[in-house]
Amino acid sequence: MPVKIAIIEDDPTISQMYRMKFEAEGFDVQTASNGRLGVALVEKMRPDVLLLDLRMPEMDGAEALAEIRKESWGKHIPVLVLTNVGEEEAPKTLKSLDVYDYIVKADLTPRQVVEKVKEALTA
Predict the structure, then answer these.
(1) How many domains does the chain have?
(2) Is residue 60 classed as helix, strand or coil in its secondary structure?
(3) What secondary structure letter does DSSP report for 26?
(4) H-helix segments, 25-60
């Protein structure tokens, strides 16, 4: 079975770029365009890894992750925050939500993000 990745990202261009990159690597990818839809997606999909943007409409990434982490099925999903928000500007609650890695989109290529996800799967 392919590894399942959920991407919660409100920018459709970025979301599709990562979807295509991960699908080309053999991953099963599903996306959601805001935090509220993302929580529902993760609950239904039970992904192996979650890529999560922070600034989104309806429910931001930190709020979505807090909801996911409340559930037994969501406690152990490796989460990579993928955002343009510098780590110093991120909500303080992220520290208590067990984030595997914090990635500023502008700092890594999609290929490097794939490598980070592969690292998370073997950690």
Answers:
(1) 1
(2) coil
(3) T
(4) 35-45
24, two tokens? 């080309």
Look at residues 114, 123, 122 and name the one whose alpha carbon lies nearest to residue 5: 114
Q: Give the CATH number, domain containing residue 40.
A: 3.40.50.2300
Domain range enclosing 59? 4-122
- Range of weakest confidence among 42-46, 50-54, 57-61, 66-70: 57-61
Task: Return left, alpha or beta for 79; rule: phi > 0 is left, psi -120 to 50 is alpha, else beta.
Answer: beta
Q: How confident is the model at residue 96 (pLDDT cuts 50, 70, 90)?
A: confident
Phi, psi of 75 (to 5 degrees): -70, -30
Q: Are 84 and 105 in contact (CB under 8 A)?
A: yes
Interior angle at CA 34, CA 32 and CA 35, nearest 5: 100
Q: Please determine, for residue 116, whether its predicted confidence score (pLDDT) is greater than 70.
A: yes
